[in-house]
Specification:
There is one protein chain. By secondary structure, the chain is an alpha/beta fold. The chain is built from 10 helices and 8 strands. Helices cover about 35% and strands about 15% of the residues. The mean pLDDT is about 95.
Length: about 260
């Protein structure tokens, strides 16, 4: 049961048949690990907190830079030079004192990823390089934790839900393969990025996170599908969206040996 003050705060959720009081209570009891507090992580965190996700583990080893402010909506000019994870925790505490934000000022590695993902109900990865994404994905697959992967560049973005630990479902490595384990991908500093595009991807990722967390519990048609293996492609120039399905790779070294 939610206390009266929480019922009032989330009234617009509770009247939705797809969520209701039971769904909101489920969100309050959920633990989401957010990897990366930049262009995607900033708006995603704001709407995860707005949705009442009870526990939010916030991972980023970086500090705010002036060039971040064009798209990273958590931060102000006065925050330049300060650690993003600490600022994000303080933002959550001021926004909703009932939530439990936890800062992790570490770079995700193959060594610490298993411990980071172990207690999460869902991982939302919005980091800026393939090597970290694959480390996170492999840890999620091994721990049986679902993963939402979100990426953005220039005027394009993508958000996909992966559950390689489930029978027949692909993991993120099935999608990108093994070629990107090296940390050598292009960056938005080189390619550029429309700030609002990062906001679109981050908020869409937050909406998909709510879907994944509620999918096992709700009976509403269309909302009870976690959309595993579906990659949503967002185009800010057209504008528009399309979707493609990612197949499970039997040769995948992360999930290929798991049941098909």
């Amino acid at each position: 049961m939610l206390p009266p003050a929480r019922l009032d705060r989330f009234a617009r959720h509770i009247v939705l048949p797809e969520i209701g009081g039971a769904g909101q209570a489920r969100l309050a009891g959920a633990h989401v690990l957010l990897v990366g507090l930049g262009g995607i992580g900033s708006p995603a965190l704001q709407y995860l907190a707005g949705a009442g996700i009870g526990t939010l583990s916030l991972v980023d080893d970086g500090a705010v830079e002036p060039s971040n402010l064009q798209r990273q909506t958590l931060y102000r000019d006065a925050d330049v030079g300060q650690h993003k994870a600490a600022l994000a925790v303080e933002w959550v505490r001021q926004f909703d004192p009932a939530l439990d934000p936890r800062a992790c000022r570490e770079r995700v590695t193959a060594q610490n990823a298993p411990a980071l993902v172990a207690s999460a109900d869902l991982v939302l990865d919005g980091c800026d390089n393939f090597a970290t994404r694959l480390v996170v994905s492999d840890a999620c697959t091994a721990a049986g934790v679902p993963l939402l992967s979100a990426a953005v560049g220039r005027f394009q973005g993508q958000v996909g839900a992966f559950a390689g630990h489930l029978p027949g479902q692909p993991c993120y490595r099935c999608y990108v393969g093994d070629a990107f384990d090296a940390d050598d991908c292009d960056t938005c500093a080189e390619d550029g990025m429309l700030g609002a595009m990062a906001g679109w991807v981050g908020t869409f990722a937050a909406m998909q996170a709510v879907r994944v967390l509620l999918a096992p519990a709700v009976g509403a048609a269309g909302w009870d599908d976690a959309q595993w293996g579906r990659l949503h492609l967002l185009d800010g120039l057209a504008p528009g969206m399309r979707m493609l399905r990612v197949a499970k790779d039997p040769a995948c070294r992360a999930c290929g040996s798991l049941p098909a």
